[in-house]
Amino acid sequence: MCMRYEEFPAKMTETREERRFAEVPRESIKLMAESAGVELGDDVAAMLAEDVCYRLREATQNSSQFMRHAKRRKLTVEDFNRALRWSNTETICGYGAQDALPFRPLKEGELFFVEDREVNLVELALATNIPKGCAETMVRVHVSYLDGKGNLEPQGTVPSAVQSLSDDLLKYYQQITRAILGEDPHLMKVALLDLQSNSKIAALLPYFVYVISGVKSVSHDLDQLNRLLHMVKSLVQNPYLYLGSYVRSLVSSVMYCILEPLAASINPLNDHWTLRDYAALLLSHIFWTHGDLVSGLYHQILLSLQKVLSDPVRPLCSHYGAVVGLHALGWKAVERVLYPHLPAYWANLQAVLDDYSVSNAQVKADGHKVYGAILVAVERLLKMKAVSLSASAEGGAAALQGSVGGMMGFRESSPGLSPPPEPLSEPPLGIASHLQAGGAGCQWEEWTPVSLPDMYCELYSFFGDSLAVRFSTGPALGGAPSATPIQSSDTRKEPGSGAANLESTRKMPQLTANMNISPRQDGSPRTEPAPPSLATAPGRSLARSSSSSSSSVPRSRSSSSRPGRSASQSRDIFPKARFPPPQVGPPAFSFLIGGRQMGRRCQGRRFQTSFTPTPSLTSLPPRAYAHKLPVIGRVSKPVRRWTCSHYSLYLPL
Amino acid sequence: MTRLAVSAPGEKMAAVQDGGSEPEGEKEPQPELPSDGSSAPAATPASKPEEQQQQQQQTLLAVLQFLKRNKLIESVDALRREAGLADEPDEAPGSEAGGGVGGAAAGSADSADASALLSRVAGAAQSGAASAPAKGGEDQPDVSVVLSAYSQQGDPSLYQVYYSGLKKFIESVLDCHRAELSQLFYPLFVHMYLELVYNNHESEAKAFFEKFSGDQECYYQDDLRVLSGLTKKEHMKGNETLLDFRTSKFVLRISRDSYQLLKRHLQERQNNQIWNIIQEHLYIDIFDGMPRSKSQIDSMSGSLAGEARREANKAKVFYGLLKEPEIEVPLDDEDEEAENEEGKPKKKKPKKDSMGSKSKKQDPNAPQQNRIPLPELKDSDKLDKIMYMKEATKRIRLGPETLPSICFYTFLNVYQGLTAVDFTDDSSLIAGGFADSTVRVWSVTPKKLRKVKSAADLSLIDKESDDVLERIMDEKTASESKILYGHSGPVYGVSFSPDRNYLLSSSEDGTVRLWSLQTFTCLVAYKGHNYPVWDTQFSPYGYYFVSGGHDRVARLWATDHYQPLRMFAGHLGDITCTRFHPNSNYVATGSADRTIRLWDVLNGHCVRVFTGHKGPIHSLAFSPNGKYLASGSTDGRVLLWDLGHGLMIGELKGHTDTVYALKFSRDGEILASGSMDNTVRLWDAFKAFDDVETDDFTAATGHIHLPDNSQELLLGTYLTKATPVIHLHFTRRNLLLAAGSYNSQ
């Protein structure tokens, strides 16, 4: 019995009650016979129909064997044809196409048919598009599991449950999370260290990321937040982990800590400022080390920072976070977001700072924090801008460096070694380039670079002397704060008239400034020390820092260029700070010149200098830097160098 | 009783013996028929005398006719005399039958059929006279003859009554017997249904099917589906499944107690219909002892023709490994040059230990070294052996703690469909068979594939030079892969020779081709299978190879013979995979009839039949020590077998689709399985075997109780990227290589 079942539109119906398989009704047989010019009786048609069905089923069953041996799940027309061929039946041609043939019913009448569209052969033949999938057959190693271990889930999906992990990993996960979130600081340290160096925890990454995303639920507990941030740091630092898309989740957790008005900050005794600083540091670290992964986030983050900054309803701590966040993202971010926004923001801040009512005391303290953060940010902005300008103008600055004291002042940490030009702007290039190139499409477009003198003028109008001191160095400045751009550039290029100790004094203010981590200025003695990685190494002369802080506060206020402010009042608020003896005195500093990004690119060098506390420091007249600590709201500078376990500073100049 | 008209002489004899109450003389006229009493069941004729008389008359007529056709006139006369039959013209078989079987309900139709069938049989018998005795008792008889066995029938309307009567009885017996007797349901159901269909009681057949098909075990679903489509007598003729069912007796293992129970019941009820079926179509393997439990029965059943008979697995199997030839390992190698004299003895000792323990004393279970002739080792083979030993010393010892690393070789851009893969033993080459009839060979190492130079160029070469083997290669032809054209159908099996000089491929076009990997041309096309050849494999010692395919016959070949040396017949379904035992003395075949058979290469006997799979078997693997066999089937299960005892010793559940690849690690500690479900799974083979060995093996009945410990044995599941795993291979250092083609669809 040879029938071309498929060539005719056949009416297929389910077999009555048993529904075992499709059947061809006798009407279809009759129709087919008619089309072939044969008249069939009912009984003949019925018999034929049944036989056709049977043969059809038989052929299908046989064809499934070919499918199985071809190791496929899909029965193809080819399989069916092979079965027909082996049962000595004519094969059916014309149905070899890979795509499925739609089997459609006709609306009027119970007719079903295979849709057979017309193909324009001419069009097909002259088509210019090359058919897809004509690449050469090849063998490649695709999936590998080393030592029978690996992600048990198919790549690209997030494991659904911890239970799917091996017991060892599970145990590790429990131990680590318990240690980090537990009470024992020593255990935590060990856990963090391991998290930072363990090469086999790739499978656990999603879980850790999930744990970290829990920051939102512990916003009342500074300690826990801190620990979670440390976890982020360890994960980011682990060289064996590829963070991939998880980095976004990490960044959002960090951003949460930076920006959100945490529940913990309701209590002024809680040092959420340090947390924000630390988070900002982390953010910058992530950007510096995983720039390739997060570059797409840069604008998003800038926008959210800007949004926070321009939202007056937000509490000051959020503003503070935004500023340190911008600061962490590099001076270009500051230049683009903070600087243009400053005039508008200044008014708000001023209002806070000028309100001397007792009820406002806390808010005002917060305001000073913001003020300090802004000051640090714009100072660096100015410096970096100056450096970038001078670098581009002077090219190789080596010759100049030797003779120019001002230069030395900027590049104090690397006397005799010329840092590569644009030490700072180069490293964040990954980011900065996005800012410049990628920014073309978005709102940054309207931004036009402001020349350094203009910028300085404007900033000076806000900050007055406190800014100037920062910017210019040398004894000349002590008397006359350079307010003009010319002056600023002059001072910069002014040959170092001072002796070596002057140079060191010039240096020191900056160091002091950096060392003044917020807790101390915050007024109240902090019970918890700064986070470990921020902890300053011991050995730094206590006298100096205590003297500097205690004596500088009032002076800084007095040196403030803003009129209408009485130093005494400002003293009222801030001198409350009982400065605890500097919790930890840092004896050794490492100065990173040229940034770690250079190290990454293997073209720069990291310079570390260990400063033994010079006896002269203590004997320094407080004046030398007292007025250089203008505000209480001093912010600790982002620490750039993370891999050094001791306190390290990034001092670009 | 036309069922006696069978072509296979053995069965005929058996059938004749069936009629136990017949006069003795009946047997005498057929001395030339070889006797094969193996299939004669314990006959207890229970039919009524008259019926029996009629049947016997029919039987006699059929025998007479057969004899006449074969010109055995004297025998005819003798038989007639003995039986007291009047001379009747054999030209009119219809009338003859009509006269003889007067009272039978469907007598005339039956006998008409019978005569037609007989004439065919006679013809077949004549033409195949020479070949018939050569074939075994399990050869397939003519289709219509087989079917004619169903001509006997009772009242079609009573079938349901019979069946449900038996069902009620079985459901009411003691629990311990119920499971065993429940085995009867499926074969009875099928045979009763087929009898109804054969006798054109279509509506009754359908009703019968609908009523009772739901009761059958789920693992028979595939067969039931085929059966359900079968409602016409005409369709039965071409149906292979049906033939399978008929040609072999369905084997059941039942304890003596249960059997007695059943027998008593049937005799009490005079339920001849069922009793006849049991007598004729079923083989009941009675054993003494405890009735088996349901799970024990389930683990062994599922095959097309029931369980294996116990005696089928009684033959001794020499599963031990052959003694490795002593090879002088040259010690002054590049590696060892660095080492001093101290290093040398050290190096030597472990080698002797590792090899010596195996080779020094002959394994008592090993076959004789020259049981089958094996090719001499060539120098290059010895070099390869040395390489192998060196690699073996660097082998990683695997275990549950140290799992192998897995490397997945993905075939990309395989629009033509990848159907088979093989690696060379040293993992340097990979071959793929494709649905577009091509075979492609890739070099996995940086060493490119080169052809030998043409004859003209070869004549220019200095044949005395040391590097002549290097010189004969044509650098211009170096490439990463080569394509071999020659087949005219999808290539379903590929296998490298152990010396890497040859490649075998089997195809839908019915041929097995031997390719040279020196010239990358086809050397021989072995024609013998006239149907698709599903699998082929080289012997571990080269020279021999085995192939099996749709024709249900596995063939053993030698590369230098164009005809097969052995034909292994016995499977009731396509042979889907073939594997050589590590000692090359045995061949295992897996089949679509859901059984695995082990064949002796020496004499072609089937020495083991393993039942228990519930779907066609698509992968087989011998353990490196030759003691065990693993098999994987479409049901996703992997079963482990002990060859020496002929027992199932393990069941590995986990895969959710056909297991297409199985491989033991080099030390046999890990079993890797690859499946259509896109996973590679690793199993603790050592534990699986160990657990069983601690059991009491004296249960000679083979009724082993399998522990359900798949989850404990599963060491790991490794997902591929939407790539079915169709081949697995352990490198000599125990790195696991897997292969499959990526399908974006």
Counting DSSP E segments of at least 2 residues, the number of strands of chain B comes to: 31
Shape of chain A: elongated
Largest sheet of chain A: 2 strands, antiparallel
Structural class of chain B: alpha+beta
Short description:
Chain A has 653 residues and is mainly α.
Task: Describe the fold and architecture.
The complex is a heterodimer of chains A (653) and B (745). Chain A has 29 helices and 5 strands. Chain A has helices at residues 26-35, 42-69, 77-86, 121-126, 167-181, 185-197, 205-212, 222-237, 246-259, 272-289, 291-294, 298-309, 316-329, 331-354, 361-394, 398-403, 405-410, 429-436, 452-463, 465-471, 475-479, 485-493, 500-515, 518-521, 542-559, 567-573, 595-601, 615-619, 623-626; strands at residues 13-14, 22-23, 103-106, 111-114, 138-145. Chain A has a two-stranded antiparallel ribbon with strand order 1-2. The radius of gyration of chain A is 37 Å and the shape is elongated. The model of chain A is unreliable at 1-18, 151-164, 396-445 and 469-653 (pLDDT under 50). Chain B is of the alpha+beta class. In chain B, helix 2 runs antiparallel to helix 3 (73-83) and helix 10 packs across helix 16. Chains A and B meet through helix 2, helix 3 and strand 5 of A and helix 12, helix 13, strand 3, strand 5 and strand 29 of B.
